[in-house]
Amino acid sequence: MVHKTAMLGGTASNVKVAKVAHGLMRMTWSGTGLLPDEQCFEAIKAGVDALPPDVKMFLNSGEFYGPGESTANLELVSRFFEKYPDPEDLRRSVDNINAALRGKKRMDLFQCARVDKNVPIENTIKTLVGLIEEGKFDHISMSECSAQSLRWAHAVHPISVVEIEISPWSYEEETKKVIATTKQLGIAVAGYSEKKRTLENLAGGDVEFSEQELADINAVISKHEITGDRYFGGPEMAQLWG
Fold first, then answer.
1. Domains in the chain: boundaries
2. Domain at 5-222: CATH architecture
3. In angstroms, rounded to a whole number, what is the distance separating the alpha carbons of residues 154 and 157?
4. Where does the record place the NADP-dependent oxidoreductase domain (predicted)?
5. Catalytic one among 65, 84, 192, 231?
6. Which residues contact 171 (CB under 8 A, 6 or more apart)?
7. Is position 65 annotated as part of the catalytic site?
8. Per-residue pLDDT of the chain (242 residues; tens, 9 = 90+)
């Protein structure tokens, strides 16, 4: 963990940085040619990961730090942030939510709408833990994640809730794995299903049921008269199916 810091001046006088900055020039401008991205990324990330939540890393790049005074160094920086997006995006989202609540209600739990495929879930959770330590909110939730992503995230910090679609129209194998994982880890499930989905959705043949599920559905159908635009008895069927 970085302990020695410094404040910048002028219009950036409110920005705190690590006292040891990171010059990137030799990563793309040296007699040995360009270094592999992964080697460069590992070095940059090691410094960034060592920072406390309120401290930034001073990365020194340049427009001409590349072969033939090209922009190779800036392109390297761009690729780094494509793979590891700025955690400040999460901070902005959290701050925007709290600002919208206007102090009338404190956010209890924060949930990313989806798992970013370009960022290791462990990094996302570490960033959220830092925001918890700052008092921004208390708990972390995940949405539409895989069972493995849930395990990786939970290993960094306890996950409180997982939101996934659970319905007769969407009950894939991965959904079953996620539910099994939540039971093992003691995580609550917030299941949702679109209300507008009715038996008409089956017309396209996109949904497959087991023999037992079909038997259960047929048992409920027999109890209802389906005429005109009247909806099928969805709630009862869902309860029986579940």
1. 5-222
2. Alpha-Beta Barrel (3.20)
3. 5
4. 87-193
5. 65
6. none
7. yes
8. 667 999 999 898 988 999 999 999 999 988 777 889 999 999 999 998 888 867 889 999 999 999 889 999 999 999 998 887 777 778 888 888 889 988 888 889 999 888 887 778 888 898 899 889 989 999 999 998 999 999 999 999 999 999 988 776 667 788 889 999 999 999 998 887 755 454 445 544 555 566 776 676 666 555 554 444 444 455 555 554 45
